[in-house]
Structure formats: structure tokens, C-alpha cells
Amino acid sequence: MRTSTRHRTTPAAHRLTAALAAAGLGLTAAACTAGGGASGSGPKAGEKQTIEVWHGWSAPHEVKAFQDAVAGFHKAHPNITVKLVKDQTDDRISNAIRSGNPPDVVSSFTTDSVGQWCRSGAWQNLSPYIAESKLDLNQFPKAVQQYTQYKGVRCAMPLLADAYGLYYNKALMKGEQPPKTFTELTALAKRLTVRAPDGTIKVAGFMPSVQYYEHVPQHIATQFGIRWLTPDGHAGYAADPAVKAYLKWNKSLIDWYGYDNVKKFLRSMGQEFESSNPFEQGKVAMAVDGEWRTTFMEKEAPKVDYGTAPAPVPEGQEARYGSGFVAGTVIGVPRGAKHAPAAWEFVKYLTTDTTALVTFANALGNVPSTIASLSSPDLRLPPQFQTFLSVFKNPNSATTPPTPNGNDYIVKFQQFVQDRWEPGKVSDLDAALKELDAKVDDSLKLAGG
After folding, report:
1. Per residue in 265-277, pLDDT tens?
2. What does the angle CA 201 – CA 206 – CA 211 come to, to the nearest 5 degrees?
3. Which residues are paired to 169 by β-bridges?
4. DSSP 8-class letter at 161
5. What local confidence, expressed as pLDDT, does residue 69 receive?
6. What are phi and psi of 157, to 5 degrees?
7. Among 321, 282, 322, 277, CA closest to 295
8. Centroid of chain to Cα 306
9. What domains can you pick out in the chain, each with its CATH number?
């Protein structure tokens, strides 16, 4: 979930850090049975008690939004007092679990570590609670159900979400309609690009490089239908035709710009989460980004007339148009929680109560994570936000599968694209992808996957 105070690094750097952090999580429950189990420890939910909840939000308006969202919980459960602890990171959460003194509820901005948490038991298996509560998981879109579990162990619940789509500058588009296919996107990007006499890029119609902010493989390659891993959990890049389709599209547009021109443009870019962002500056005509960008546009570039649409899909896959990449914040009950039954009641309320979700979504500019909350008349978000609500509930929207070592398989793929593919250092793509598969599989094997 992006807000101006929370993310100071680019998504690529954040994900590289997340993968390294995920590797350390293997120590959290080395002696624990895989998957863990709901402990049910502590007083019953109906008894008077105080639960401690750790979350990562830190800015005053974020903290207040969380407080407002949980206010209804105390009304429904007057015996349970909620102590909120802000600005908590995955490392602090892991250290608390490792030390045997965790809070009662924990949340994370990334889904990258869900596989590790579920497998190790660092976050409790919520299935017994879900069954006892008769909670219908179909109130969440399919992709959301996927990123909150690992191999049948559901150790997390979704708390707000991110959905990705195409932003376009209406003035630069000059009446053109947003593209629905990558063929249309490529042609339009070339028409809208403005170059200096020496060929350098003054205005990019669309910047395909994985080094451009949110144009990381998850958000673009997912639109090509990449499977990421085989059904049995192995790397499948070499055998997936969608991988080659994505890579060939990426390289063809980079070559049209000229790799040196792309590098110069990337070096000239401002900060992603500041007004110097090139889309907000009118230096990029179209870009894939998350729903939070609507809030940034409102605050930092209110004069820019822009629209949003689903990200394009390859020709021949038009039936999938309207879908996109989705992910989000997750919340759960850590192993060793002293008030586990009450903690579950809190998690259930915050992740399924429409009023709480809408209150939170309105304040943070994120997507509420249940199907019912998506159509709430109380949502107060800009018109351009509707695209992301639609993408989120689209049955073809997808996410990346969890693994025991976080998003290492994505990090390795992005490094391959950034360091070898885009610069033109790959002479045999088939061989290079097989080599990449072997590296990913070796890493998964070391992690116990």
C-alpha cells in the first residue's frame, strides 16, 4: 500500500529488500510444525482483556484512519480494549515472534512473506477460526484468497488492497483512446513520444523498462498471462510462452527508443512518490500504476487532466481485458499470541466489516478488500478510482504465488531482465531462461520448497 510517508524506495528496491528479509524469516519457527495451528490460547473472546495490535502505518492521518476503522470493533466488543502500536516492520514482527513475546495481531504491507509465515507457523493457521466463525471466503476475490494462504494453510486475511491499471495524460493523448492490447499500446507510445534532435526522450509515450517505477514484471508481465511457477512449485520461465511474449515486447520497444536513450531518461526521473514523478510532470503519456496514484495526483498534480483504464493485454487475449495485478496488506495472529481468540475476533471484524473497510479505504486511497465493500455508497474516491475497483473484482485479475522464500523467484527474474535482457546481453534466450529456472529452483530447494 503506497502513501507518501511510507515508501521512500522504488518498488524494485523494496522487493529486493523484502526477498532478503524473507530469507531471514526461516528462523522464526525452525522447530515448529509446518503450517502451525490456531493455538486458541488466552482468555475467551467474551472476557475482559486488552489486545496489542502492531501495524506499519505511521503518518498522523494514517494512524487516525486505523483508529477510526477499529472504533466500531470496540462498540461490538466493549470487553476488548485495543492497543495500537504504529510503524512496525516485518523485521520487528519476526524478532518479536522469534523471542516468544509477540503482539496479539500483526499486519504487513507486503504479501511476499506469506508463504514463509504460513509454512513455518510464525503466523497461526486461521482455518479453525474461519470454520468456527462460518466465515465465507468467497466474499474476497479469487486472487485475494490466493495471496493469503500457502499450500492450503491460510495464515493471513486481507486488509485493503492494491490494484494496478493504466494512467494516461489526456492532453498528451490528444483525443486518442487508451489502448486495450499491447500492440495498440506500442503503436500509441511511438506516436506520443517526443524526442530531442539528438534522439533523447523528452516525452515518453510509455516507458517499458522494469526500472521505471511500477513497471516491474509483476505488474506488466502478469498481463501476458505469465504463470511464474509450475503447478508443482518449480520455476517455469523457459517453458512458458507468455514469458517470451513479454520479453520480446519489452525489448522491441526499448530498442525503438534506443537503450542509451532509455538509460538517460531513467536517470533524469524524479522521485516516484513526489511531484517530480514524470507522469505528474507531463513527461510520460501513459504509465501502469497502483490506485494510490489517484491520491498523489489530487495532492501533487491537480491541474493534470488524466484518465485511468485497465492495463492492456496481448492480442488474442482480449477476453482478459479489464483484469490486472492485485496484492495488498495482510493481517494475522502470530504464534504465541496471548489473546488469540480475541485477536481473531479483531482480525475478522477489520477484514470483513464493510464500514471499517470503507472508512479505511477512504482515508488511505486504497481498494477495500471485500466484494461487498467495493460497491458501498459510502466510498468517497475520485472518478478515476473506479477502474481499480473493477480490476480488483475482475475474476481474471491475478497475483504472484507465495513460496517459502518470499518473492525470490521474481527478484531473480527482474534482475535478469534489468541486467541482461534489456541491455541486449542475451544471445540465446532459451538457454538463458533454463539457467534462470535452475537458479530459482536451487533457491527454492534451499528454502524447503
Report:
1. 999 999 999 999 9
2. 85
3. 306
4. E
5. 87
6. -125, 150
7. 277
8. 23
9. 11-162+325-393 (3.40.190.10), 165-320 (3.40.190.10)
Radius of gyration of the chain (CA): 22
Q: Which of 373, 372, 359 lies closest to 67 in space, CA to CA?
A: 359
194 vs 203: CA distance, rounded Å: 5
- B/e letters for 35-51, b = 16+ CB within 10 Å, e = fewer, are bbebbeebeebeeebeb
Grid coordinates representing 387? Answer: 477502474
C-alpha cell at 351: 477484514
Q: Give the C-alpha separation, 371 to 141, whole Å.
A: 7
**pLDDT tens digits, 356-383:** 999 999 999 999 999 999 999 999 999 9
Contacts of 245 (CB under 8 A, 6+ apart): 224, 314
Among 197, 310, 215, 198, residue whose Cα is nearest residue 253: 215
pTM check: above 0.85? yes
Could you give the CA distance from residue 35 to residue 403 in angstroms, rounded to a whole number? Answer: 13
Cell matching residue 332: 494475522
Q: Is the pLDDT confidence value at 46 over 90?
A: no
